[in-house]
Prior knowledge:
Layout: H1 11-19, H2 23-45, H3 48-64, H4 75-94, H5 127-130, H6 134-146, H7 149-160, H8 165-172, H9 176-198
Amino acid sequence: MATSDAGGPSDLELLNRAREGQWEAFEELVARFERRVLRVAERILQQRQDAEDATQQTFINVMENLEQFRGEASVGTWILRIAANQALTVLRKRRSSRLVQPVAGGSDSDEPLPPHPEFIAQWRDDPADLAHRSEVRRLIDEALAELDEKYRVVFQLRDVEQLSTRETAEILEISENNVKVRLLRARLQLRERLTRVLGDESTRVTPPTHDH
């Protein structure tokens, strides 16, 4: 999480100054978190224009609720929670004509165990090298777009924004165990999708069958 820039004021110091009416402090908060908020919104909404609108509304909400910050989470977690909630509100309005699976809420028992992967093989190249290739990043984006939104959001917050399990749970208002299960499911689905493209067919392993 962002805390300060090269010895500059911390996020909390900027928020407190903004509370006192120092507009430049609020502008600095926006500058620090705008790109992260946009990434979160875009990953949830899968549409740039809606994500930009949600980002603007997020910072309006932040400005209007500065006095509501109680320090129970970091400033960054608080802002990203507002961003996630704003994006989810837009998503539900967009899909109001059909039932939408909630991202937040639910108990641990709501999360099924991740399925056994169907395609298991060694990758042809080192994953660390692959991660820097534009075509692999495109594949990751496409695979993420196919994930159920509740798994996609958790992956975005944990693995892309690198928030902790606790912070992700606070933002989505779910248990830490739910975060862990959703993240595991997202990672497994993403890896299987990428393995089908990047895996070495000659090393493919046939997974065991399971009698039910």
